[in-house]
Amino acid sequence: MPPPADVPDEPRRLAILGATGSIGTQTLDIVRLFPDAFEVEVLSGHRNAERLIAQARAFEPTHVVVTDDAAYVTVRDALAGTAIQVTYGQDGLCEAAALPTVDVVVAAVVGAAGMRSVLAALEAGKTVALANKEALVVAGHLVEAALAAHGGTLIPVDSEHSAIFQCLQGEPPAAVERLILTASGGPFRMRPRHTFADIKPEEALNHPNWSMGAKITIDSATLMNKGLEVMEARWLFGVGPDAIDVVVHPQSIIHSMVTFHDGSTKAQLGVPDMKVPIQYALTYPERWEAPHERLDWGQVAGLDFEPPDREAFGCLPLAYEALRLGGVAPAVLNAANEVAVARFLAGTLRFTEIPEVIGYALKTITGPAQPSLENLIERDSMARRVAQEHQPRRVPLTNC
Question: Phi and psi (nearest 5°) for 377?
């Protein structure tokens, strides 16, 4: 497909951090759609050496970064003799994100591991297409400061935040009354609560609408994903937690909404396809013609909405609590959640015990009200240790 008429003469040069994951691979699908409009400068990956090597050979970036020891050796040796520079670790990610040859950084590293490179990109004044929730969840105040000091640009990739971002185009910020994040409800929306303790990882990984990585899929099943999105929205759009609502919308056609002071509500709709918000982040402020699937309105039988069950899905109220506490609490919640999800996937923690582990970490670990990056990293490590060691009480489900 040829580039649209409004594509700049020079291609937009991309650093795709987390290239081997779901967002990264779909970003490369967009690059394939518009090969004259984008140039891949940087690719990064963690353990999937084989996929990263294949991507590097296909797109010929100038830099490849690997953050796993064994995978680094494999990738380095496989790309030896090429013009590609292979670097390692968090320092490599940060250096690549700030390269003067990079225009747009796609921040798709999963978890807190992606936080430093997002800050490095913003401190270099880059445009960041943000798919990494944790940069804002853990260090929203630091991201805000970097944007103010260095003039970078932050464009959300998550479908919900992209929807809000699109609804806000041309609207004065003062006109916004509420942000409404939609949630599919995950695979257990209709499941009786008394059976939650029996949920197995393979059940939780079976999302009804979206194809995502394991960690984010479990977060969707617990509704922690929506809690993290509330925390993100607070920093992306400058509103407090009391002005951010979550509503369950099982069809996942309305991706989110904005209500304005005059009573009007705008919504962004589309099929559940992450390529659409990814492309919008890469081409903003233009919209380029693309062959993504369209809604067939004759097949849309209805749009349903319901409030989330905060008792059954205890992670959502915990996220609101951490956001209101501020300071290090969001970092503690995020780190404890990552460990709790890993324990659940490993079979050593029940589904119903995930929020208990997170709540225990929030009560146990405190810190300064305006934490530095070092403070956050320290509390992150403490929370991971506490979440790994805590053994939940085996209480009846109705008392959870």
Answer: -65, -40
Is residue 175 within 8 A of residue 262, CB to CB? The reply is: yes
Dist. CA 5–CA 73, nearest whole Å:
43
Q: Strand 176-183 relative to strand 254-260: parallel, antiparallel, unpaired?
A: antiparallel
Whole-angstrom Cα distance, residue 128 to residue 143? 11
Task: Please classify residue 214 by burial: count the beta carbons closer than 10 Å to its beta carbon, then call 0-12 exposed, 13-18 middle and 19+ buried.
Answer: middle
- Measured CA distances, 287 to 3, 6, 255, 281, 395 (Å): 11, 9, 18, 10, 52
SS3 of residue 177 by DSSP:
strand
Reduce the DSSP state of residue 291 to 3 states and report it: coil
* Residue pointed to by tokens 């970036």: 61
- Read off the pLDDT of residues 77-130 as tens digits, 9 standing for 90 and up: 999 999 999 999 999 999 999 999 999 999 999 877 888 999 999 999 999 999
Question: Sign of the C-alpha dihedral, residues 40, 44, 49, 51?
Answer: negative
The Cα-based distances of 16 to 21, 23, 74 in angstroms read: 10, 9, 20
The first and second tokens of residue 277, run together, are 């918000």
Would you give the distance in Å from CA 195 to the centre of its chain?
29
Predicted model pTM: 0.90
Q: What is the DSSP letter of 158?
A: S
